[in-house]
Each structure stands twice: as C-alpha cells, then as structure tokens.
Amino acid sequence: MQKTTIAILGGGAWGLALADLASANGHIVRVWSRRGSTNLEAVLQDAQIILSAIAMKGVSDVVSQVKSFPLSPNTIFVTATKGLDPQTTCTPSQIWQTAFPHHPVVVLSGPNLSKEIQQSLPAATVAASNDTAAAELVQLVFSSPRFRVYTNADPLGVELGGTLKNIMAIASGVCDGLHLGTNAKAALVTRGLTEMVRIGKSWGAKTETFYGLSGLGDLLATCNSPLSRNYQVGYQMALGQTLTEILANLPGTAEGVNTCQVLVQRAKQHNIAIPITEQVYRLLEGEVTTRQALDELMLRDIKPEYN
Ligand SMILES: NC(=O)C1=CN([C@@H]2O[C@H](COP(=O)(O)OP(=O)(O)OC[C@H]3O[C@@H](n4cnc5c(N)ncnc54)[C@H](O)[C@@H]3O)[C@@H](O)[C@H]2O)C=CC1
Ligand SMILES: O=C(CO)COP(=O)(O)O
Questions:
Q1: pLDDT bracket for residue 1 (50, 70, 90)
Q2: In terms of Cα–Cα distance, which of 113, 111, 124 is closest to 151?
Q3: For ligand 1, atom 7, which residue shows the shortest CA distance?
Q4: 43-60: per-residue pLDDT in tens?
Q5: β-strand 76-79 against 105-109: which pairing, if any?
C-alpha cells in the first residue's frame, strides 16, 4: 500500500509498540510525547492519521493542544486509550469526535499486551468506526503477518470492551493472588462479561461486540496475564500491599483504577447493577479487604443466571 504519514501522540509502552508496527509496514511515523524533544506542531504537520495512545488523564489536555494547530480536513483520528473521563464519563473517542466533528474517528482496541507485541509475537485487534473507509485504512496501515486487524462498525462497543475489562483484570489479579482456583476465575470472568454487556447495552453499544476480540478477547488476555498492569494491581492487593504502594512501583498506567470510580457514578445515575465493579471500587477505596469483597460477591441474593 501507499506510504501513510502517521503522528503518534504518547510515547508510552503502547504508543511505541504501535509506532513500531506502522514503521515495520513502511509508513512514515512521528512520535510526540510530552516529555520528549519533538514539537507537537511539527509532528502533526501533513499527518494523514493522528493516533492517540495517551493515558486517559492526559487526553482532554492533548485534544486542546491539537485543536490549536491547522489540520488537513481529511485527517483521521485513531484512539487507543482505554479509559473514561472522570468529569463527563465520556469515552476517549467521544472526546476526540466532539473536538473534531468533521473528521473520522477510529477506535483501535483488542487483546494487545504491549510487551508481547514488542517481542513480535502474533496478535489480533479491532479498528472500529462509523466511517468504514477510515477503519479500513487503519486496518491496512497496521496489518501484518504478526498483527491481524479486523474492522468493526460499533466503535463504542469496541472502546467500552477494552475499558471495562480493566476492572475485571483487577478482580482477576485478586482472584489469583488469593489462590481461589480455576473455577473461581472462570466464574469471575464470565460474570464480568455479563456485567460489561449490561453496562455497554445501557450506553448504546451492541451486545455481540463484547463477545469479540475487544471484549472477551481482551478479558482473556488481561485476566490471565501478569503483564497486565491492572491484573498486577489486584494481585498485589491480594498480597497485602496498599494501592498507593502498588501504583508507586507500577511500570505504566493501570486505567482500571480511575475507570472504576467513573463507572460506579454512572451506574448509580442509570440504575445499573455492577456488583463486581462495586466490590473492586470498595477495595480500591480501602473500604473492604480482598476477602471481604469476595464474601460480598458470593453471598449476594441467589438469582437466575439471566434477568
Ligand atoms: N500497554 C499496553 O499493553 C496497552 C495500553 N493501552 C492503553 O493505552 C494507553 C496508554 O498506555 P501505556 O502506553 O501502556 O501507558 P504508559 O504509562 O506507558 O504511557 C502513557 C502515555 O501517556 C502520556 N501522558 C500521560 N498524561 C499525560 C498528559 N497529561 N499530557 C500528555 N501526555 C500524557 C505519557 O507521557 C505517556 O506517553 C492507556 O489508556 C492504556 O490502557 C491499550 C492497549 C495496550
Ligand atoms: O489493555 C491491555 C492489553 O490489551 C493492557 O492491559 P494493562 O493496561 O492492564 O496492562
């Protein structure tokens, strides 16, 4: 395919892994990071794709900075952030789309532990957008024999899959840290998926999207891998460390910690049952121990599996 010029915003683990994938396919890639020496305006100049791999806490700020520079009307935005805005509960793609209403926005999300991608291990992901041509361009730019990209027309569902699974990854870390066994993990991940579908549907996402790579796929990856920072948060809490100690030593961002808070607030407003998220929230807030959180979940009123 033709060479594409790509500006990658965010020089963290994921931004750099995506930069490598696009460079390996022969594209022109420029990375901007707030602590790096590159100038944002120069990085954005003539970019056909602007990809954000910024941690959630920096997204609104970076969006405002990008808005102050002239862009080609055809520039495609891609967001790879897995978080929710604490003030508005908006997803990153909603923030980008509101700021740039006339540009296509594509969500890139899937089971993509950056360490494995950096080792060139095979993986698959999803490029989702309401603009099919934009999703297909992003698919072409990143696809290779080691990275298989699928398109999808439910960007909200794809984005929420990657975001909500972070909470289940924290819970799974707790499950493994407490040595609760394989049955417990299977129950947790399956009920976690049910909870993700319930939240996602109320938001307007499609149920089937959560059974794909960005939902179930990312759950399987992060709920079972010590490479997941969110999993590490739960695992180390089960070993008795405090959240402050864990976050001080964590390499990179565990978005699930903030997402949990946003979801609890949103679930209250919309009257949605989120028992697992609620217990993870209480654990992170120091209101319950890992054992108490487990008991709270196991001793809930018995009920039909689906209602
Ligand atoms: N590492 C991974 O395996 C994957 C991560 N993601 C998502 O990608 C996002 C970034 O993750 P990582 O690269 O792993 O995190 P990281 O902690 O390695 O990097 C975070 C990046 O965000 C930037 N940033 C943070 N606050 C900022 C601010 N106020 N202004 C400007 N830039 C700011 C940092 O400078 C850094 O470049 C997260 O939302 C994460 O959930 C998605 C898929 C895989
Ligand atoms: O989202 C990820 C892999 O798909 C990365 O997970 P962590 O943010 O928990 O490390």
A1: confident
A2: 124
A3: 81
A4: 999 999 999 999 999 999
A5: parallel
**Closest Cα to atom 36 of ligand 1:** 12
Residues contacting 297, CB < 8 A, separation 6+: 275, 276, 279
The helix (run of H) or strand (run of E) holding residue 116 is helix 114-118
In this prediction the ipTM stands at 0.98
Of 191, 188, 192, residue with least CA distance to 178: 188
Active site residue 3: no
Which entry of 3, 67, 165, 201 is annotated as an active-site residue?
165
> Could you tell me if 259 and 84 are in contact, meaning their C-beta atoms sit under 8 angstroms apart?
yes
CA–centroid distance, residue 162 to ligand 2 (Å) = 8
- Give the pairing of strands 49-52 and 147-152: unpaired
Secondary structure (3-state) at 224: coil
- Give the Cα-Cα-Cα angle 46, 47, 51 (nearest 5 degrees): 160
Is the pLDDT at 249 greater than 90, yes or no?
yes
